[in-house]
Amino acid sequence: MSDLNEVKAAARKAGFARRKLAFEARPPGAAGRLSEVLAGYRGVPLSGYMPIRTEIDPLPAMAEATAHGPVGVPVIQGAGQALRFSRWVPEGPLRDGPFGAKVPLEDDYFDPEILIVPLVAFDAKGGRLGYGGGFYDRTLEGLRAKRATLAIGFAFDAQEADGLPLESTDQPLDMLVTESRVLSFR
């Protein structure tokens, strides 16, 4: 198992480096493309995320979606636990959450049916490499056990990688949106 952990750590390091370069270059078009995709799901409860560090920013598309239905952001409950999603509104009061991500001041939890998922790296088959805590994998597994749940990865083109070291517990993406394209995997 330590070999796989080392391979994943190396893949994450490479993914972070590619993401940082893309973030610094700030390629245009990603938020608009995400808005176009979400327009096909108006009113469906969705979750985005509050971008940290060099993550691509979904906030413009999330703000637009609030006019049509509930939008939430993930709230970490603790190590080894699934995420919960608290209702978010643009300009709403926020507090500091774990790992430097902001969360709504008041918790108003709901289950989203669409998750805009941050990531470190992705592959052409819908594989996703996250930060290593398993939060999204655990959460998607639980939500998908209850009902169809769409996982939309949001990333820079530069975050694509070949041969990601994935495990059976890694939940696949259904779709991926970048600054230049929309990939559908299911």
UniProtKB/TrEMBL annotation:
The keyword ATP-binding applies. The keyword ATP-binding applies. GO terms for molecular function: 5-formyltetrahydrofolate cyclo-ligase activity. Its cofactor is Mg(2+). It holds the Pfam family 5-FTHF_cyc-lig. It catalyses: (6S)-5-formyl-5,6,7,8-tetrahydrofolate + ATP = (6R)-5,10-methenyltetrahydrofolate + ADP + phosphate. Keywords: ATP-binding, Ligase, Magnesium, Metal-binding, Nucleotide-binding. Its EC number is 6.3.3.2. SUPFAM superfamilies: NagB/RpiA/CoA transferase-like. Belongs to the 5-formyltetrahydrofolate cyclo-ligase family. This is 5-formyltetrahydrofolate cyclo-ligase. It comes from Ruegeria spongiae. The lineage of its organism: Bacteria, Pseudomonadati, Pseudomonadota, Alphaproteobacteria, Rhodobacterales.
